[in-house]
């Protein structure tokens, strides 16, 4: 009876051992898969580190004052140098902008002064016209008053002559006096004196007529010249005013066009950059989700391995208890002990794999933080989908090229030939656009610390 029980227990132990062997094989397969994944992760990490080192070398080569035999700069030194270059370029651009704004304000002030002078000239022309109208009105009033006095004097002379006795020839003499306009003087004179007065008046009129003719001709000529001169001056002032107005309007239109073109170009560049950054962000988010799914699968695979280990330990204990009763199961118990040792070795290896994965994730986070800091210093959005390391290096090259040319203008006067050290070194290798770093959820904290 006891023997049958032992046989049954032996059969049950054999079945348990077979099941443990099958589970151990499955565990070995899972461990092999994890090792393969770990090797792939190591290879990817090494490739990422090589790309990062190459990127640092390219960035350091573009920095000013970098010699070929100088040691490789660290991330902090590269960031510090980039910050200095960005600050210097920003100060240069601010100085240029300030100078351009001053020139524009001077042009606007000149245009305003010209417009004020034109308005003052128009006002002076209007005042001169008003004065001319007033003088013409006064002249007409004086002519009317003079005609009235002459008519009154003629009327008085006629009344006096009517009261006197008529003489022969008086009528002709009166008509002649009226024609010569001496009736007011000849009223109190005799006949002989009136004849002499008429003769003198005739001679005087002839002389006055000749002098008046000459004077009228010279006055007419001078008035014509003065009128022509005033007309030319008025036309030149009007033309000057029109030119000033056209110049002011052209300046305003050029300023509007310049502002519109600058704002339109900035808007187009901003739209294109936003689209590229959106695509880059979407691609990085997809890579991040894939990495998270892979990590979740690895963690899920590690849970059954720990459960299998516990089960193996329990089965080993059961086998040890049975070995105390049955000496025939010594070989099986030794096999189980070897399995236990192998499982412990696998567990230690799994722990090592976990630590390696943690170190790899920390390294990737540091690389991504450094890349984002460099992108932000260059006013690039590191979360864009199509922002590659090649774009960052090209932006750095353009920035440093501008900075070197600025240094050349300040420190290398004359026509001396000078080449940018960024173009004398080896060409920047085109990094593949598909190279991207997985940004873990906790990557924002190191980036914030790096920016501070």
Q: Main traits of this protein?
A:
452 residues; mainly alpha; 8 helices; 84% helix; 0% strand
What does this structure look like?
It is a single chain. The protein is an all-alpha fold. The protein has one domain. It has eight helices and no strands. It is rod-shaped, with a radius of gyration of 57 Å. The C terminus is likely disordered.
Layout of strands and helices, then pairs:
Blueprint (H helix, E strand, L loop, with lengths): L1 H61 L12 H89 L6 H11 L10 H135 L4 H48 L11 H23 L9 H4 L19 H8 L1
Helix pairs in contact: 1-4, 1-5, 1-6, 2-4, 2-5, 2-6, 3-4, 4-5, 5-8
Summarize the structure.
By secondary structure, this protein is mainly alpha-helical. It has helices at 2-62, 75-163, 170-180, 191-325, 330-377, 389-411, 421-424, 444-451.
Largest sheet: none
Q: Over the alpha carbons, how many angstroms does the gyration radius reach? A: 57 Å
How would you describe the shape? rod-shaped
Kindly, what is the distance between the CA atoms of the first and last residues, rounded to a whole number of angstroms? 81 Å
- What sequence of helices (H) and strands (E) makes up the elements? HHHHHHHH
* Helical amount: over 70%
Strand composition percent: under 5%
Total of DSSP H or I helical runs spanning 4+ residues: 8
Low-pLDDT ranges: 414-452
Average pLDDT number? 71
> How many domains comprise the coordinates?
1
Q: Which structural class should the secondary elements be placed in?
A: mainly alpha
Can you count the beta strands?
A: 0
InterPro entries: CCDC170-like
Protein name: Coiled-coil domain-containing protein 170
Keywords: Coiled coil
